[in-house]
Specification:
Number of strands: 19
Number of helices: 10
Strand order of the largest sheet: 1-17-13-16-15-14-5-7-6
Radius of gyration: 21 Å
Structural class: alpha/beta
Order of helices and strands: EEHEEHHEHEEEHEEEEHEHEEEHEEEHH
Largest sheet: 9 strands, mixed
Shape: globular
Length: 443
């Protein structure tokens, strides 16, 4: 039996639950002297780039400071959806960009979801993909108005698969009385993220990509012919094309990109096995779930339907997985009281990267391609933008994606160190409390 102060099951580990079946494996090989395309970052974006290049006869080298797939690509919640897959469809975007351009962005998001499904089928990716639907809970009455506008914009794309549920029907989706209604998206799905990134890496390798972990990028110099001389901890190599796909793990060796990304730790826990019957009692439709709070929750059943996986921004101060796990357990039981007494076996975190405009970005700067800023929704987005970057490398230009027309903003004096996040976190907590959201003490 767990308590609020000690929710840990015997043998609790600070390691992603996903790694039990699909741990990142080191990929070692000698570093070549020259390559056609060098991709920095062995997550979804980098691997998707290499796969698309390989399918078109261009061989890429993918390097990562850690093992291939070690970062957020194998640590996330494994939830994906259509219109929300390339950034949330927000009503304020129309005021900023105009209705026509926003319609292009939304349509591209819908197509990216379809393309993702097609990729899984074409490559035979072993990732436990299920089109399960998504429920977004309204944390306050006024949030229902925002969800109504969002549903209207999603349905305007032609999918017509976003529905509002009143408060009286929330228990059809979640065993809670905390939400004031919500929105149901039918065109949404789940994957096992560890298996997905592993299968994507295998597909890229089959297409001719070379994958090497334990290689730290330390900078590049562009030559007169447009190629790059790249410095790494394992020596120097020459690349005709260079692609940055480091997202929330972008380091000081890529200062232009780092200044445009806000890395934020996102935390998750996995419950002990409680059996499918009890999981279904908590989450009757076995969907993926989120809510409208500033400090949001995201959660889902495990692929085998025997556990609850629960995530959120449990800390803006430190990266302590154990302390964050205690908070997340408290949040989970406060939201779904029937889970009182359920212990947790895994707790972990990974860095997501937010852009200042809360939009994903793909493009080129000083000859270096990039796909970054997934803003917490990266499985479909980074798969899509990896493919876009590859098409650009092969000469597709900016016509391959409406998102290439977005500028990638930064802020004066920002260098990539998000010193302001504790202040932002406090403001977000206050906003949620003013909206009426309080976490009860549980024990």
């Amino acid at each position: 039996m767990s308590t609020a102060s000690d929710p840990f099951a015997p043998g609790f580990v600070e390691r992603p639950y996903w790694w039990e079946e699909a741990p990142p494996t080191p990929a070692q090989a000698p570093l070549p002297d020259a390559v056609e395309v060098l991709v920095v970052g062995g997550g979804i974006a980098g691997l998707a780039t290499a796969l698309e290049l390989g399918r078109n006869g261009v061989k890429a080298l993918v390097i990562d400071r850690e093992a291939i797939g070690w970062g957020a690509s194998s640590r996330n919640g494994g939830a994906l959806s259509g219109a929300g897959s390339l950034g949330k469809v927000r009503s304020d975007l129309v005021e900023t960009f105009g209705a026509t351009f926003v319609a292009e962005l939304a349509a591209e998001g819908e197509q990216a979801f379809e393309d993702f499904e097609a990729l899984v089928a074409r490559e035979g990716l072993d990732c436990q993909y299920v089109r399960c639907g998504r429920f977004v809970g309204a944390h306050a009455p006024k949030a229902m108005e925002a969800l109504k506008r969002r549903a209207e914009m999603i349905n305007a794309t032609g999918s017509e698969e976003a529905f509002l549920l009143p408060r009286g029907r929330v228990r059809e989706e979640i065993a809670t009385d905390r939400y004031h209604g919500g929105m149901l998206l039918l065109r949404a799905a789940s994957v096992h993220p560890g298996k997905y990134v592993r299968s994507l890496a295998q597909a890229a390798a089959r297409a001719g990509a070379m994958l090497i972990g334990g290689v730290e990028y330390r900078g590049a110099t562009r030559q007169a012919d447009g190629a790059f001389v790249v410095e790494t901890n394992r020596g120097r190599l020459r690349a005709r094309h260079l692609m940055m796909a480091t997202n929330g793990y972008t380091g000081p060796a890529a200062p232009w990109h780092r200044r445009r990304l806000i890395p934020v730790a996102s935390y998750m826990i996995a419950s002990e096995p409680i059996g499918e019957e009890r999981v279904r009692a908590a989450l009757p439709k076995l969907r993926v779930y989120g809510d409208t709070k500033k400090i949001l929750y995201y959660f889902r059943p495990s692929p085998d339907h025997t556990r609850i996986l629960f995530g959120g921004r449990a800390s803006f101060v430190d990266n302590d997985a154990r302390r964050a796990s205690v908070r997340l357990h408290r949040f989970m039981v406060d939201l779904i009281p029937d889970l009182a007494g359920v212990r947790i076996t895994h707790g972990w975190f990974g860095n997501v990267a937010f852009a200042f405009d809360m939009m994903p970005h793909v493009g080129v700067h000083d000859g270096i391609r990039y796909a970054m800023g997934c803003n917490g929704s990266g499985v479909v987005a980074m798969t899509h933008f990896g493919r876009v970057a590859a098409q650009q490398i092969m000469g597709g230009g900016n016509s391959v994606s409406a998102f290439t027309r977005l500028t990638f903003p930064t802020r004066p004096f920002y260098t990539g160190n998000p010193w302001f996040m504790p202040l932002v976190g406090t403001a977000y907590q206050l906003r949620d409390r003013l909206d009426g959201w309080r976490v009860k003490d549980v024990g």
